[in-house]
Amino acid sequence: MERLQKVMAEAGVASRRKSEVLIAEGHVQVNGETVTEQGIKVGVHDQVSVDGIPLNHAKLVYYLLNKPRGVISSAKDDKGRKTVVDILADTVTTRVYPVGRLDYDTTGLLLLTNDGEMANKLTHPRFEFEKTYVAKVQGIIRNEEMKQLRIGVKVDGRKTKPAKTKLLDTDTSKKTSLVQLTIHEGRNHQVKKMLKAVGHEVIKLHRESYGFLNLQGVPSGQYRPLRTSEVLELRKQTGTTE
Questions:
Q1: In the predicted model, is pLDDT for residue 74 greater than 80?
Q2: 20 to 30 A Cα–Cα from 107, which one of 33, 59, 74, 208?
Q3: pLDDT in the model for residue 56
Q4: The pTM of the whole model exceeds 0.90
Q5: Are 142 and 190 a contacting pair, CB within 8 Å?
Q6: Which of 55, 61, 26, 59 is nearest to 42 (CA)?
Q7: Class of domain 62-125+220-238
Q8: Cα–Cα distance for residue pair 214/112, rounded to 1 Å
Q9: β 154-155/62-67 pair status
């Protein structure tokens, strides 16, 4: 027997906290009866529904995707564009969702899972998961601009937290720079806005790592399941239970 909100989170409905809200608001039924109390426990033979839709007690799965350019970071798109979930659809039958998002034109590492609790923690700023990006920008970036990025710059009226930076390359003929930037915040379009704040428009952006995870051996448009050791490490770092 497990708590209802945990079962809902493991089935990919929502995080535990959001599942508790759904329960309190009367959206959840157990064996045909609406429940609103917290802490109710259910077993494998109990029928759980959310707004009348049966819940699948799905096994928790975790995938690492090397997102290509021109793909939407969502489970579905109302404009009919290809999504990251579509890439997995041929072999992954469990309903999964992206952890956070990458812009339509941004490439690189993206996690997908049906573990609502872990996904919620991975995107919460309290856990400060480092994300490393490589950006090709217009113009030759200067040392003082790199220093500004490390200290923090104003983005949407708020100063960003300190970042790690490294200048990888410059092309004086094309007047472009290749910059590595590591942050642990997750604001909307943050990397692009940070670089624009120091005077450089982003031409290309690629996320090469997420915490201890990287894209080694995963070509663009391909994916792999996380190894057991990687899942255990994520659970350890986020305090997520099985």
A1: yes
A2: 59
A3: 64
A4: no
A5: no
A6: 55
A7: alpha beta
A8: 14
A9: unpaired
From its phi and psi, is residue 222 left (phi > 0), alpha (psi between -120 and 50) or beta? beta
Q: Domain 130-210 class?
A: alpha beta
Q: Tell me if residue 103 is catalytic.
A: yes
- Residue among 181, 217, 176 at smallest CA distance from 64: 217
Catalytic residue among 51, 103, 115, 169: 103
Nearest partner of 120 among 4, 1, 6, 3, judged by Cα: 6
Q: Which value, in Å, is the radius of gyration of the alpha carbons in the chain?
A: 20
| Alpha carbon separation from 79 to 72, 74, 115, 181, 198 (Å, rounded) | 10, 12, 27, 32, 34
Contact 114, 10 (CB under 8 A): yes
Question: What is the model's pLDDT at position 92?
Answer: 87
Same topology between domain 2-54 and domain 62-125+220-238: no
Average pLDDT value for residue range 148-166? 94
Q: Where are the domains of the chain?
A: 2-54, 62-125+220-238, 130-210
DSSP string, 117-147: HHHHHHTSGGG---EEEEEEEES---HHHHH
Higher pLDDT residue, 75 or 221?
221
Options 3.10.290.10, 1.10.472.10, 3.40.640.10, 3.50.30.10; CATH for 2-54 is 3.10.290.10
CA distance 69 to 134: 14
Residue 120: pLDDT band (50, 70, 90) is: confident
**Phi-psi category of 36—alpha, beta or left, where left has phi over 0 and alpha has psi -120 to 50?**
alpha
Give the SS3 label for residue 160: coil
